[in-house]
Specification:
By secondary structure, this protein is mainly alpha-helical. The chain is about 60% helix and about 0% strand. It has 13 helices and no strands. The radius of gyration is 20 Å and the shape is globular.
């Protein structure tokens, strides 16, 4: 008899239809699936309830839309350093991928960051003329963005690169290309996060990298993008009506897809005999601590009025 197991934890880590099918096909035993269910609950306890996921003081404050222009410039500058330096970690993750399938999954993220648009093979691209400029900013210009599909067969456009979207936000508050994205613009706490991404997310040890990747993508899907979007929408309405926000609105919608990719990756590696739980949790815990250093650093800067 096949028993369907569904986790009830709040982060929606469930036994997927992929695992259920492998169980039905006899590729996995009921005990293996039950053990994986218990493992997902352990992941939830040890990683997905980290304070930086459940209670980010900076984004909780930012959500209210009260950031001054100086505070907003500081946030965008530090976030741009993380966003741009993430490319280094993402490339290392591709290079160090232990399997072709994992390499392709990693390339999906990297190439999309660089401007290759997701293409859904079964859905036509919406007519951009049918959307207003406001709708394009909130939902994404269909000529430049998509939240579904694959980069395989997608079109590369310079303007679709995520850093160029962020540059549009920067220009709207008085910053230019030379003011953002470089290591020289980063505070020590920002650079610590960037370096830990390179060390952990891009690690040569696939077990460490797997844990870090899983934690990063599930942190990104846990709600902080919504808090940033909410705060920026209020700032746009009150002070900067022309401020483009597609960078934030798009990421808010797409991160669940990235988290789904990492769960699928985890399903692939978990049942291998060489899967190392300890290293997986090490990678996850250490990258979450680095994420906390970044956001807590921004919060301290705000409280101490440090905006260099």
């Amino acid at each position: 008899m096949i028993t369907q197991i569904v986790s009830t934890n709040p982060t929606n880590l469930t036994i997927s239809s992929r695992i259920q099918e492998r169980l039905r096909q006899g590729e996995l035993t009921q005990k293996q699936v039950s053990d994986f269910h218990d493992f997902l609950n352990e992941v939830d306890r040890k990683l997905l309830h980290h304070p930086i996921i459940t209670n980010n003081a900076y984004t909780n404050w930012f959500e209210n839309g009260k950031a001054t222009d100086v505070e907003l410039q500081h946030f965008i500058r530090q976030f741009s350093v993380f966003s741009n330096q993430f490319l280094v970690a993402a490339l290392l993750k591709v290079i160090n991928s232990p399997t072709l399938k994992q390499s392709r999954t990693s390339r999906e993220i990297l190439l999309n960051e660089l401007g290759v648009i997701y293409r859904h093979p079964e859905k036509p691209t919406p007519n951009p003329i049918a959307l207003t400029e406001e709708e394009k900013d909130k939902e994404g210009d269909p000529e430049l963005v998509s939240t579904e599909g694959t980069v395989d067969g997608g079109i590369c456009r310079f303007r679709a690169a995520h850093f160029e979207w962020l540059l549009g936000v920067a220009k709207g508050i008085g910053l230019n290309f030379a003011d953002i994205g470089k290591r020289k613009h980063g505070r020590a706490t920002t650079l610590h996060f960037c370096d830990e991404l390179i060390r952990l997310y891009g690690s040569e040890d696939p077990q460490i990298a797997q844990g870090a990747s899983f934690a990063v993508e599930h942190w990104a899907a846990a709600g902080f993008w919504q808090e940033l979007e909410d705060g920026l929408m209020q700032i746009k309405q009150r002070r900067h009506p022309q401020l483009p926000l597609a960078f934030f609105t798009w990421h808010n919608r797409v991160e669940a897809q990235h988290a789904g990719h990492t769960l699928e990756e985890l399903e692939e590696v978990y049942f291998n005999s060489n899967f190392d739980r300890a290293k997986f949790f090490q990678g996850g815990r250490e990258i979450l601590e680095a994420i906390a250093v970044f956001w807590d650093g921004l919060n301290r800067d705000r409280l101490k009025c440090v905006y260099t």
